[in-house]
Amino acid sequence: MENWIGVGVWIVLGAIVGLVMRLVIRRPDEQPGHGALIAVFGAFGAVIGGMLGVGMFHFQEPSALSLGGMAGALALAVFMSWLYRWGSTEWV
To answer: Do 69 and 10 form a contact (C-beta atoms < 8 A)?
Structure first.
């Protein structure tokens, strides 16, 4: 049960990171609806990053709430959110 709670924490962490990234990287020509999409990208990145972090650092006793899992979730959530914000700009 602890691992499912950890995965839920990863999802919430990723969504928060995505919304913070939306506030940090401002775009003047932004269309409505990007907030939900960037939260989904952040949550997706957090789940994948958390799994990778647990697999790399805590292979013998995997726990989602471990330091490796949380660090991996945070790192990939930031990267996925940044990648979406950077890639959604219009190149003229």
So the answer is: yes
Number of domains observed in the structure of the chain: 1
Cα separation of 88 and 26, whole Å?
Answer: 12
With respect to residue 48, please indicate whether it lies within any of the assigned structural domains.
yes
List helix spans (H) across 1-92: 2-24, 34-57, 67-87
For 30-88, the pLDDT digits (tens) are 777 778 888 999 999 999 999 898 888 777 777 778 888 889 999 999 999 888 877 76
- Residue 77 belongs to some domain of the structure: yes
> How far is residue 79's CA from residue 31's CA, in Å, rounded to a whole number?
22
List the structure tokens of 10: 């990863």
pLDDT of residue 83: 87
pTM: 0.83
Amino acid making up residue 51: M
